[in-house]
Fold this protein.
Amino acid sequence: MDVLRIYVGGTWIAPSGDATMPITDPATEERIGTVALASPADVDHAVNAATEAFRSFGTWSKAERLALLRRIRALTAERIKDLAQAMSREMGAPITMAREMQAEAGVGHADGFIEALEAQEESWTLSNGDTLLREPIGPAGLITPWNWPINQIALKVLPALATGCPAILKPSEYTPLSAAIYAEILHEAGVPPGAFALINGTGPVVGDALARHPGLAMVSFTGSTRAGISVSKSAADSVKRVTLELGGKSPNLVFADCGPDLETRVRASVAECFLNSGQSCDAPTRLVVERACYDDVVEIARMAAEETRIGDPRAEGDHIGPLFDRLQWDRVQERIAQGIAEGARLVAGGPGRPEGINRGWYARPTIFADVRNDMTIAREEIFGPVLSILAACDEEDAIAIANDTLYGLAAYIQTGDPERARRVAARLRAGAVHVNGGGLGCGTPFGGYKASGNGREGGTMGLEDYQEVKSLHFG
Ligand code: NAD
C-alpha cells in the first residue's frame, strides 16, 4: 500500500527528495505502507503546471465544466468501495461508516456542486446598467486533514474545478491512500494536465510552501486553528485569498421540554458526539442541559456511552473504531486525566483502552458530568469520544454558556418547542444550528464563526470562494 509518487502535469512522478513516512493501520498499530514526501521544489513544479493549464482551463465553458463534474461524480460512485477501504485502513473509520458516510460524501458534494453550478449566473446586469461577470480566481492550493479525508478533499477540489481554477491538493500526510484513489478518479475523468496536482508532504514543508507561493491566487485550508493561523500568516505576503475551516467545541443545548423524546434525543446526541470516534470538527462535545432534566440526562448519557460498541474497522456495523494514531490517543488520554484533575465527575469511560482490547488506538467512550465551562475539557477541542455535560439554570444561561467559546462551527438544540428552537438558534454564534437531529445536506454552506474559520464550503457559496467578480461599465 505504498504511495511513492505524486501527480503533477497529468502524470505520476517521483518527488524530488527522498523523504518518506510510514502509513500505519490504527487498529493494529502495524505499518501498512510508505508515503514519499514532496519538497518545495515539487510545489514549484505543480504551480508552473497549474499556471500553464489555467490559460486554457480558466476559459472552459460552463457546459464543459459541468460535463467534467458529472464524469467525476460517476467515477467516484464506481470507486466508493475502494475509497472506503482506503480510509478504513489509513485512519480507522469502521467500514460501514467509511462507505456510507466518508466515501459517499464525495458523491453527495459532487451533486451539490453540479446543482449549484447549473444555477449560478455567470453574468448579470445591475439596475444602474453596469454588468457583473464571475471569473475563476486562478490556481489554488488546497490543504486537508485526516479525519474526513474524502469529504474535505471533495469540498475543495470540486469547486476549484467547477469554476475553472487549477487545484494543487496537499492531503494530510497520514491519509495518502484515499487521496491517491481520488487523483486516479480525476485523471480518468479527463481533468486536463496541470489542472490538478496531488502533492503528498508534511504541513510545515509542503503546506507552508503552498501558503507562501506567489504563483497561487488562493489557499483553502481545513485543519486545526493552530495551523490555520500559520497558513494565514504565511499567505499574507503574497496577498492571496485565504479560506479556513478550523476547529470547534460545539454546544448541544438540551431543554426539559423534550418531554417523552428526551431519551431518544440524548442517545442520538451521544452517538453524534462519538461518531468517527469523536474526530469531527463539528461534533457536539458540550452538552448544556437545563437543570430541570439534568439528572435524567446524565443517566441516559451514561447508559448510551456504556452501550456504545467499539470494534474492528474492518467489521461491518455501527460500532466506533480506534483513534487515528498514537499522537491522538495520547492527547485524548491527557485531556481525560485533566478532566479528572480539574474536578469534573467521571460517569462513564475514563483513561486507558476499553476492556479486553490491548492493541490499536482505541479509547473508552467517556462522559464527564458537572463540567464547568472554564475547565480545559470544556474549552479545548479533544478530538476523541469524550462528552462534557454542563448544567444551565434556564434558556438565557444555556445560550450564554453555549456562546462562551473561542469557536463557532456548529451548535445543536434539543427541544419540544419549535418557537424556542428558532429563538435560541437566532442567538447562537455558530455557522450551523442543528435542531432535534437535523443533518446538513450536501450543497448547504458549511463553515464557522470566530476561531472556527472563514468562508463557506459546499454549494453556491463554496463556488464563490473560488471566484472573482468583475464589473463592466459601458459608456
Ligand atoms: P492539522 O492542522 O494538524 O493538519 C491539517 C492539514 O494542515 C494537514 O494536511 C497538515 O499537513 C497541514 N498543516 C499542518 N501544519 C501546517 C502548516 N504550518 N502550514 C500549512 N499546512 C499545515 O489538523 P489535523 O490534525 O490533520 O486535523 C484535525 C483538525 O482539523 C481539528 O482541529 C479539526 O477540528 C479540524 N477540522 C476542521 C474541519 C472544518 O471543516 N472546520 C473539518 C475537519 C477537521
User: Anything to note?
Assistant: The chain has a mean pLDDT of 98.
